[in-house]
């Protein structure tokens, strides 16, 4: 090792600097490793071509101590020693700016339920002139040409407009869309609907709020909704149609979440069961839907991130993790950044082509909104491995660059804040692997 006077990160490893600390992203394995302030500075200098001997002299670090530190990075597969400096291989980072991976199609805003938390504030009332099948087909062809192969048909309740729903689904399958999903409350399904879904090889998704019938019906504000849901879940599963279920957590059902998941799995064998907290949009803005325990449960107080491969790393450096390659098209033709982001429209497909809409200043701003443009997050070393939801972060305000309120990390201090039992607040140092 004495002959090795240089050190560099491997091609798939990237150093990201925060205001205080740093992080090394291993995009081969998807892992992220935290660096102390001094460690960050040392790796920066070495990766730019400084010799180990120079670092020891400048920073007053013993060669043995420095080599032990660097050996840890080598053992993690993140870097390597060398006898001479080698400029890093340039890794081609894929761009996703001109492509789409997913589209939400709101077939109708009408719904036979009036769920207390509905992001779309849906009801049986129409809000405008809804798109016809021919209009959907035209825009879905444009979306397809952007590389998109997955879509969700949603409402309102899409079975309120059954004819259009199946016409659009059929055209999408013929067009080449590989993943077509209908999101429905499953209360209006008929035997013929289920047969059509199976014939078209479409998957289903639904919301279910509680194994307790009274709680579920209170949330949907529709008597009999619980019974209809479980009857049709059984029929869908019997026909071997893929079904996933989501639980939206509010004050009314937070105590029954785990037993509801168990109920769905035991009764119907449903494996894909997700849960999420009420988002502050539409009727979900009502403050009485949220409890203090729900707020506490969402707080992130230690590093906990999904795997970040090269594609994910590239996407989050270039733009927003959702807005970049997903869109929502409303029943009246407005193109939104997200199914939840109702206040922003890029344009309307009745007045412009999708190409023109995605080239608009608003679309450019939202699709390119990486964490580098978010308050405080821009100074955080975890900004490219941390999932972002703008609707949730701005929490009903007009501040589109608000820091996620649930994140307890302070990048200026390099500390995670934690709440003590009985109230109060303290801090812990951000810990890492090297």
From TrEMBL:
Molecular function terms from GO: catalytic activity; iron-sulfur cluster binding; metal ion binding
Its protein name is: Radical SAM core domain-containing protein
Which Pfam families does this one have? Radical_SAM (PF04055), SPASM (PF13186)
- Residue ranges of every copy of the Radical SAM core domain listed in the record: 97-321
Q: Which organism is it from?
A: Candidatus Wolfebacteria bacterium RIFOXYB1_FULL_54_12
Record InterPro entries:
4Fe4S-binding_SPASM_dom, Aldolase_TIM, Radical_SAM_PqqE_MftC-like, rSAM, rSAM_sf
Membrane-spanning ranges:
none
Q: Tell me which UniProt keywords the record has, alphabetically.
A: Iron, Iron-sulfur, Metal-binding, S-adenosyl-L-methionine
């Amino acid at each position: 090792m004495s002959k090795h006077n240089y050190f560099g990160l491997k091609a798939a490893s990237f150093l990201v600097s925060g205001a205080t600390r740093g992080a090394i992203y291993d995009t081969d394995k998807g892992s992220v490793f935290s660096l102390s302030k001094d460690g960050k500075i040392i790796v920066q200098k070495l990766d730019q071509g400084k010799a180990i001997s120079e670092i020891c002299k400048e920073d007053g670090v013993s060669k043995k101590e420095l080599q032990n530190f660097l050996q840890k990075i080598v053992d993690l597969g993140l870097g390597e020693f060398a006898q001479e400096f080698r400029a890093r291989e340039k890794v081609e980072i894929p761009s996703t700016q001109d492509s789409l991976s997913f589209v939400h199609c709101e077939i109708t805003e009408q719904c036979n339920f009036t769920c207390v938390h509905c992001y779309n504030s849906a009801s049986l009332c129409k809000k405008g002139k809804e798109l016809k099948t021919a209009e959907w087909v035209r825009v879905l062809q444009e979306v397809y040409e952007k590389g998109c192969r997955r879509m969700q048909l949603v409402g309102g309740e899409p079975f309120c407009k059954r004819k259009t729903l199946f016409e659009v689904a059929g055209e999408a399958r013929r067009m080449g869309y590989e993943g077509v999903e209908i999101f429905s409350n499953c209360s209006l399904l008929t035997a013929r609907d289920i047969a059509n879904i199976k014939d078209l090889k479409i998957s289903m998704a639904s919301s279910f709020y509680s194994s307790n019938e009274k709680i579920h019906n209170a949330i949907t504000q529709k008597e009999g909704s619980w019974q209809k849901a479980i009857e049709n879940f059984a029929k869908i599963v019997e026909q071997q149609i893929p079904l996933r279920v989501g639980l939206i957590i509010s004050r009314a059902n937070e105590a029954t979440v785990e037993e509801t998941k168990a109920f769905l799995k035991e009764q119907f064998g449903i494996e894909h069961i997700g849960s999420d907290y009420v988002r502050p949009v539409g009727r979900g803005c009502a403050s009485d839907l949220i409890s203090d325990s729900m707020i506490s449960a969402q707080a992130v107080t230690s590093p906990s991130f999904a795997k970040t491969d090269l594609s994910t790393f590239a996407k989050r450096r270039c733009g927003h993790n959702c807005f970049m390659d997903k869109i929502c098209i409303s029943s009246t033709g407005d193109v939104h950044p997200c199914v939840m982001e109702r206040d922003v429209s890029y344009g309307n497909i009745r007045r412009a082509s999708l190409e023109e809409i995605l080239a608009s200043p608003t679309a450019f701003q939202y699709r390119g909104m990486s964490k580098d443009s978010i308050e405080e997050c821009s100074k955080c070393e975890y900004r490219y491995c941390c999932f972002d939801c703008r609707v949730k972060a701005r929490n009903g305000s007009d501040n589109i660059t608000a820091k996620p309120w649930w994140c307890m990390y302070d990048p200026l201090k390099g500390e995670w804040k934690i709440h003590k039992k009985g109230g109060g607040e303290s801090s812990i140092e951000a810990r890492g692997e090297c």
